[in-house]
Write a structure and sequence with these properties.
The chain has 20 helices and twelve strands. The chain is elongated. The protein folds into two domains: 312 residues, ABC transporter transmembrane region fold, CATH 1.20.1560; 244 residues, P-loop containing nucleotide triphosphate hydrolases (Rossmann fold), CATH 3.40.50. The longest helix has 54 residues. It is 66% helix and 11% strand. The chain is α/β, with parallel strands linked by helices. It has a six-stranded mixed β-sheet with strand order 6-9-10-3-11-12, with helices on both faces. Bound molecules: adenosine-5'-triphosphate and magnesium ion (MG). The site of magnesium ion has 3 residues, from helix 12.
Length: 590
């Protein structure tokens, strides 16, 4: 009854229902294992039932024949039960693990459908924690507890049958007490769930703290904030421990409470059952068999509080996972979006306005056309919207008014893949993966040939230093390329862009992190990259863009000047002021 109670409570849970849908593909296997489980449950009951002939026939009536038969029957029962136990538990384990694997894959795949804005608003550590911790928690709930719950349910049904068969009056007395014992379980269950949500949040925060401070260890050391970070982390760990201890308090309390309830029931049964035997209404065998079944029933009942807390934790994790899966991407491909044919004519910004969600406009009705083969430079003060503008082209964000067209096609009408294939982006922040130099250059083009990779490295002025590395192209560069200098990392990412061979190129302050020496090297690599391409260059250092075909000046989200370097200097406006300031600066430094 107790089992049934919490089982039915669970069945109404929407999270569980959804988990059930994830289970659908595995239903044949599940049915099979459930059938095996029923057999195990029946055999459990059979074991309890066999106590009656043991006592009444062998000990009491001294039936010699049964003395040989019963032990053999017992062996058979254990053996068969063992076989079915293996079948169902192994199958269920496999199903449990498969759901978890599928769920991890699903969440990871879903992450990539989400827009950049989602990642900017969600700490990385938190996402990692969802995929690793939450899914692991769900795993222990599914593969251990939920399964045990099902198995116990079968045993309970069988054992209840034995109890009723042996002595229905006594059974009724027992059943009055079982629901009472389930009281604390229901109450504690809610507490466990609430605590568990708190726990997951705390874990996510701690993971995020770790992620940020390990990735940013140089800043921590440089600012000597080790003590500060240690304290912050210690506080987070303490909060986790407090949460776990509160959980433990209820868990530790639930166990003796349930046990005590069971004790009351047991005392009553011994008293009432003993009376039945003394009055001659029952036999000692029947009573013992009843008691055995009850004791066997008690075992899963005792365990259910722990199972319950694990399940509640798992459900909390599932809630968070499903919430993540329900996040809708802002940027979506239209159904039936066509592929963009190779870029030929022009890239056009038509009255483009943009604002970040919940913020005022950062771009105001901007008109700009970039011709095929043109090198366009975008300059302007910090915060004027240059990066924002460049992010609109690969649809990292969508315009909030107006349209961006490539060869007269609105970029919202074409497939994301074909759009992004035609655009290469090099930013100030280089992203290299913890893999070989070759794999980093080939990223996104695994079918590139050996000579293409070398050629790309050569054009990026990276071939010389790559060949001097201990294993050349096969050298593994650490996370974020720690074994390479900033300029070397930058040139590898340029080689990657060269290999991608996209017709539209966006350079967002690709050299601003470098000193003048390596900037010169990287600039040469960039000049190679820009050949025969349509390029939008964003640069602070104006000396790198003086030879651009056209320069546009952006200020507070508006285009205020446009022309060649000479024209803009002659105009004597914003650009000329910026240029002379920098020129004076550089002359001063030199
Ligand atoms: N994710 C974001 N959410 C909200 N506002 C943002 C976001 N990113 C940028 N902004 C705001 O948009 C404006 C334009 O930023 P943007 O990064 O495009 O400037 P920028 O011209 O590239 O500056 P810089 O030269 O410093 O790189 C700024 O006012 C900035 O605060
Ligand atoms: Mg910027």
């Amino acid at each position: 009854m107790l089992k049934l109670n919490s089982f039915f409570l669970l069945c109404k849970d929407p999270t569980l229902k959804r988990l059930g849908r994830e289970l659908k593909p595995y239903s044949p296997k599940l049915l099979l294992s459930m059938a095996c489980m029923v057999v195990v449950g029946l055999f459990n009951a059979l074991q309890a039932w066999m106590v009656q002939p043991l006592l009444d026939e062998i000990f009491y009536r001294k039936d010699a024949q049964l003395l040989y038969l019963l032990p053999l029957a017992l062996l058979a029962v254990f053996f068969i039960k063992g076989l079915f136990y293996f079948s169902y538990s192994f199958t269920l384990e496999k199903v449990g693990q498969s759901i978890i694997r599928d769920l991890r894959n699903k969440v990871y795949a879903h992450l990539y459908t989400l827009s950049l804005s989602y990642f900017q608003n969600t700490p990385t550590g938190e996402l990692i924690s969802r995929i690793m911790n939450d899914v692991a928690m769900l795993q222990s709930a599914v593969s251990h507890s939920l399964i045990r719950l099902l198995r116990d349910l079968c045993s309970v049904v069988g054992l209840l049958a034995v109890i009723f068969y042996m002595d229905w009056r006594l059974a009724l007395v027992t059943l009055v007490f079982l629901p009472m014992a389930s009281g604390p379980i229901v109450i504690f269950g809610r507490k466990f769930r609430r605590l568990s949500i708190g726990y997951q949040n705390l874990m996510a925060e701690a993971s995020n703290h770790l992620h940020e401070t390990i990735a940013g260890v140089r800043i921590v050391k440089a600012f000597s904030t080790e003590e500060y970070e240690k304290q912050r982390f210690a506080a987070k760990l303490q909060a986790i421990m407090d949460n776990l201890m509160e959980n433990a308090r209820y868990r530790c309390l639930a166990h003796p409470m349930v046990e005590f309830m069971g004790g009351i029931g047991m005392a009553l049964i011994i008293w009432f059952g003993g009376m039945q035997v003394m009055n001659g209404h029952s036999t000692p065998g029947t009573f013992m068999s009843f008691l055995t079944a009850l004791i066997m029933l008690y075992e899963p009942v005792k365990g259910v509080t722990n199972i319950n807390s694990t399940i509640q934790q798992g459900m909390a994790a599932a809630d968070r996972l499903f919430a993540l899966l329900d996040v809708q991407p802002d940027i979506r491909e239209k159904s039936g979006a066509r592929d963009l044919p190779p870029f030929q004519r022009c890239l056009e910004f038509d009255r483009v306005s943009f604002h970040y969600p919940g913020n005022p406009d950062v771009l105001h009705s901007l008109n700009l056309t970039v011709q095929h083969g043109e090198m366009l430079a975008l300059v302007g003060p910090s915060g004027s919207g240059k990066t924002t503008l460049s992010n609109l082209v690969p649809r990292f964000y969508d315009v909030t008014a107006g349209a961006i067209r490539i060869d007269s096609q609105d970029i919202r009408d074409i497939s994301l893949r074909s759009l992004r294939q035609q655009i290469a982006v090099v930013t100030q922040q280089t992203i290299l993966f913890n893999d070989t130099v070759r794999a980093n250059i080939m990223y996104g083009r695994n079918n590139a040939s050996e000579s293409e990779v070398r050629e790309a490295a050569r054009a990026a002025f990276a071939l010389d230093f790559i060949e001097e590395l201990p294993q050349g192209f096969e050298t593994v560069i650490g996370e974020a390329g720690v074994r390479l200098s900033g300029g070397q990392q930058q040139r590898i990412s340029i080689a990657r862009a060269i290999l991608k061979n996209a017709p539209i190129l966006i350079l967002d302050e690709a050299t601003s992190a470098l000193d003048t020496e390596s900037e010169r090297e990287v600039q040469k690599a960039l000049d190679n990259l820009m050949q025969n391409r349509t390029t939008i260059v964003i640069a602070h250092r104006l000396s790198t863009i003086v030879h651009a075909h056209r320069i546009v000046v952006l200020k507070q989200g508006r285009l205020i000047e446009e022309g060649s370097h000479e024209e803009l200097i002659a105009l004597g406006g914003e650009y000329s002021t910026l240029y002379h300031l920098q020129f004076a600066d550089e002359a001063h430094q030199a």
